[in-house]
UniProtKB/TrEMBL annotation:
Naturally occurring in which organism (per UniProt): Actinomadura sediminis
Keywords: ATP-binding, Nucleotide-binding, Transport
Keyword Coiled coil listed: no
Domain ABC transporter: start-end pairs: 6-219
Molecular function via GO: ATP binding
Protein's name in the database: Zinc ABC transporter ATP-binding protein AztA
SMART domains: AAA
Gene symbol of the encoding locus: aztA
Length: 221
C-alpha cells in the first residue's frame, strides 16, 4: 500500500497577484496525523486550501493517492451557532457532496450519519440544536460532518481554536481513532500539544517550508 497520501512538488499559490506559498515540496504520510504549524499569516490555511483542491497552484503539482474528494472541516467559530439546525441535520449535510442536497437520504446514508456521530461522541446529542452546544461539541459535530463525506483525507483549520484543553485533547483522541481506521489527517494548529502529538509536522514561515522531518521516516517509527 502506498505510504504517501499527498505529494507536493514546487507548489506556488496565492490570491490574485499575491503569492503566499513559495516552492512547497513535501509529502503527507497516509493514515497519519500531519500538523501544519507556523505563525499567523505563514500560509497554513492557504496550504489547506491547496490540499483541498479549492485553490489551484500557480506552479508545481499536488498529487493525491486516494480517489475520494478531500473533506475540508470548518472551524466551529466560522459557523453561526444560531443556525436553526439539529446535530443530525448538520452531519447529514456531509452526504450532500455524494447525493446532492435535494435527494432524500437512503438507509445507507442514515447508517453513515449514525456511525459518524458515534465516532466523535455526539450520537447522544443528535436532536439538539447547534445553538445549544458547547464549542467543543460543535467542533466534533463539524468533524462528523466531514467524516460523513466518506473521505479518506480530512483537512482541518485549527479545530482546537477557542476550546479548552480537555476539548482539544478529545479532538486529538478522535484523530488517533480515525488514523487507526486508515484516515489521513492534516490540521493547522497553534497548539503546541497538538503539534507535538502529530506524527509529522510541516513548519511554515512566510509561505515557505522550513526544513522539517522526513515524512515517511517519522511516520514509520
Ligand atoms: N482570500 C485572501 N485574499 C488575499 N490574501 C489572503 C487571503 N487569505 C489569506 N491571505 C493572505 O495570505 C497570507 C497567509 O494567510 P493564511 O490565512 O494562509 O495564513 P495562516 O498561517 O493560516 O494564518 P492564521 O494562523 O492567522 O490563520 C496572509 O498574508 C493573508 O493576509
Amino acid at each position: 500500500m502506498d505510504e504517501t497520501a499527498i505529494t507536493m512538488r514546487g507548489v506556488r499559490a496565492g490570491y490574485g497577484a499575491t503569492t503566499v506559498l513559495h516552492d512547497i515540496t513535501a509529502r503527507v504520510p497516509r493514515a497519519r496525523v500531519t500538523a501544519l504549524v507556523g505563525h499567523n499569516g505563514s500560509g497554513k490555511s492557504t496550504l489547506l486550501g491547496v490540499l483541498a483542491g479549492a485553490l489551484a497552484p500557480t506552479a508545481g503539482t499536488v498529487e493525491r493517492s486516494g480517489d475520494r474528494r478531500p473533506a475540508l472541516v470548518l472551524q466551529h467559530t466560522d459557523v453561526p451557532a444560531a443556525m436553526p439546525m439539529t446535530v443530525r441535520d448538520a452531519v447529514a449535510m456531509g452526504r450532500w457532496a455524494d447525493r446532492g442536497w435535494w435527494r432524500p437520504l437512503t438507509r445507507g446514508d442514515r447508517a453513515v450519519i449514525a456511525d459518524c456521530m458515534d465516532r466523535v461522541g455526539v450520537a447522544g446529542l443528535a436532536r439538539r440544536q447547534l445553538g445549544e452546544l458547547s464549542g467543543g461539541q460543535y467542533q466534533r459535530v463539524l468533524i462528523a460532518q466531514g467524516l460523513a463525506q466518506r473521505s479518506d483525507l480530512l483537512l482541518l483549520d485549527e479545530p482546537g481554536a477557542g476550546l479548552d484543553r480537555e476539548s482539544r485533547r478529545r479532538i486529538l483522541g478522535i484523530f488517533d481513532d480515525l488514523v487507526a481506521d486508515g484516515v489521513t489527517i492534516v490540521h493547522a494548529t497553534h497548539d503546541a500539544d497538538a503539534a507535538e502529538r502529530a506524527d509529522h509536522r510541516l513548519p511554515l514561515k512566510e509561505g515557505r517550508l522550513l526544513a522539517g522531518e522526513p515524512a515517511l521516516e517519522r511516520a514509520q517509527r
